[in-house]
Amino acid sequence: xxxxxxxxxxxxxxxxxxxxxxxxxxxxxxxxxxxxxxxxxxxxxxxxxxxxxxxxxxxxxxxxxxxxxxxxxxxxxxxxxxxxxxxxxxxxxxxxxxxxxxxxxxxxxxxxxxxxxxxxxxxxxxxxxxxxxxxxxxxxxxxxxxxxxxxxxxxxxxxxxxxxxxxxxxxxxxxxxxxxxxxxxxxxxxxxxxxxxxxxxxxxxxxxxxxxxxxxxxxxxxxxxxxxxxxxxxxxxxxxxxxxxxxxxxxxxxx
Amino acid sequence: xxxxxxxxxxxxxxxxxxxxxxxxxxxxxxxxxxxxxxxxxxxxxxxxxxxxxxxxxxxxxxxxxxxxxxxxxxxxxxxxxxxxxxxxxxxxxxxxxxxxxxxxxxxxxxxxxxxxxxxxxxxxxxxxxxxxxxxxxxxxxxxxxxxxxxxxxxxxxxxxxxxxxxxxxxxxxxxxxxxxxxxxxxxxxxxxxxxxxxxxxxxxxxxxxxxxxxxxxxxxxxxxxxxxxxxxxxxxxxxxxxxxxxxxxxxxxxxxxxxxxxx
Lengths: 255, 263
What we know:
The complex is a heterodimer. By secondary structure, chain A is mainly α. Chain A contains 13 helices and no strands. In chain A, helix 2 packs antiparallel against helix 3 (about 55-75), helix 3 packs across helix 8 (about 135-160) and helix 8 (about 135-160) runs parallel beside helix 13. Chain B contains 12 helices and no strands. The N and C termini of chain B lie far apart (about 40 Å).
């Protein structure tokens, strides 16, 4: 645990070295997220209330998404590269260390631009999420569960590279999850909806936490926490078993 | 006699196209993602259209679906990480080494990327077209769709030129990752990628029509959704000239800075 904390501290120190660039990146990320706000406001302004969703709830969804995606891709930045590193044989550096490889690998790199997302998500909830202590608590726990779920899914998708030999599965999983998490799951029906709650759990990443903030349901909350734990466990298992098939590429870089 | 188009342009174009075709797995993954995106965004809009009596600002379920097919095909033909990659190449020194070549850095990069975008365009059109055929049937107008065919590569070219101009911030910031996010969203909203510009309120729509982003998604999408408006192709050509000049100017200024940093 001490090794993990030290690696995380080091990654943060490295990421914050250039303070001016950090400030600029956070500001640009705010601009990026505001564009999504503009989209949802414009969409619901024109389309009206659809299947229980309106502009306010869409902004709630966006605040959960920004927070959890920011934490996942900011603090655990290497999660996006697990597949490519596995298929390219670039894990040698972490395997030589006396620490558990997966946690070390995940926090080895912090991406400052995504930390702007976390700040934005929090700010958006405080401005547009009608906050009170109860709602804020649900938003916080929901966002953390969503982060765990996203992390577990991306590790699983990336670690498939150990078995299929290509990092493209991880990249495809990354795009699919991020893309589909941006939309309210209630807009989809049939097989697509089933996929959003299982294979690509985008509904659990955003729509479920957003819905819980508005209408808390203990059963749904338990399902969210369970899904998050299950995906984290799946990610851990896929990486650990996959590591047995790893072959070195003699490259000593990001790991 | 000097050639009108330098020989390296053709070589760079075919190199870019061959790189993409040499990795059919990547192309297949791209098509799968494209199907997901077109499926999700067009569903969103069809729900909205149906909830509003079958028509929203002149778009019905069929035309709005084909709009999304074309807008996504044009946008996704250009690598989504291009700005990030250019930024990494600038910070990592790859651009500095490319300056040793007897051809402009930005020119070669634009040609290679444009070549790479062409197979992706075809793949995206096939994948997105299949989604539309299954969900709403054929395009609203074959004539308008034919007009959209030249608009697609023009859209990719405009996008590439603007991306290079944007990525040039890495000469100063050493990281263009955040510029990529912002640039992408400008195409999403002002480029009409996620929503037809007719849906956008008056003043904002006027701004969108005055910006170059509409050439990168809206133009082919508007044509492909059944609107015969050939003048939109001229708008694309005019913006392409301006954006290419902007990219060249940014790289020229940035390369001078790189030389200064390198001593």
